[in-house]
Amino acid sequence: NAGVTQTPKFQVLKTGQSMTLQCAQDMNHEYMSWYRQDPGMGLRLIHYSVGAGITDQGEVPNGYNVSRSTTEDFPLRLLSAAPSQTSVYFCASKRTGGNEQFFGPGTRLTVL
Amino acid sequence: KNEVEQSPQNLTAQEGEFITINCSYSVGISALHWLQQHPGGGIVSLFMLSSGKKKHGRLIATINIQEKHSSLHITASHPRDSAVYICAVSPNYQLIWGAGTKLIIKP
Known about the structure:
Number of helices of chain B: 0
Structural class of chain A: mainly beta
Structural class of chain B: mainly beta
Mean pLDDT of chain B: 92
Number of strands of chain B: 11
Largest interface: A-B, 22 and 23 residues
Distance between the termini of chain A: 36 Å
Radius of gyration of chain B: 13 Å
Helix content of chain A: under 10%
Low-confidence stretches of chain B: none
Oligomer: heterodimer
Distance between the termini of chain B: 36 Å
Mean pLDDT of chain A: 93
Largest sheet of chain B: 6 strands, mixed
Helix content of chain B: under 10%
Shape of chain B: globular
Number of helices of chain A: 0
Shape of chain A: globular
Order of helices and strands of chain B: EEEEEEEEEEE
Largest sheet of chain A: 7 strands, mixed
Radius of gyration of chain A: 13 Å
């Protein structure tokens, strides 16, 4: 099993550009989530999904969209990047009813 | 006030020292998690606790539900233990995260 994979690992964008951060898991986990990690702060939940076709907002959803067309994939879209979105982004998954989350390696995004 | 507080924020110790990292929380929880984030950035789950104590190798995690407090201990610390240790709590299926404790173990 590859676990949770994320691409790209690094990305630099200009303000106003759009891009999609990819996340995939091969563990058949129903629950997937996106976090951002900023210096001196705990991880903050952006969006999450409890299953294919179902998504919901977390703590800091503004500026981000998600979709969940399959169990495996949970892409995060930035429609118009802003410098405030410079951060490290982590995707995670877990099975429904389970407590342990499995994390991807992260994507370091810089918006100039 | 943050719902999950960790202390200390930074800790530097010599190899071999006994390490304690503390986590206090203010919400009702179903479980508490300790995770490790290495300098490369990857996050790994160490423990999930709902009561008592768990041990894995040189790592020990304890939780006191009544006091809403947990500790992570590292015995015989080693430079490879250098990482950020993160406490997170589950009031439901989501996690509330502490800001992390950066641990450096010097040889």
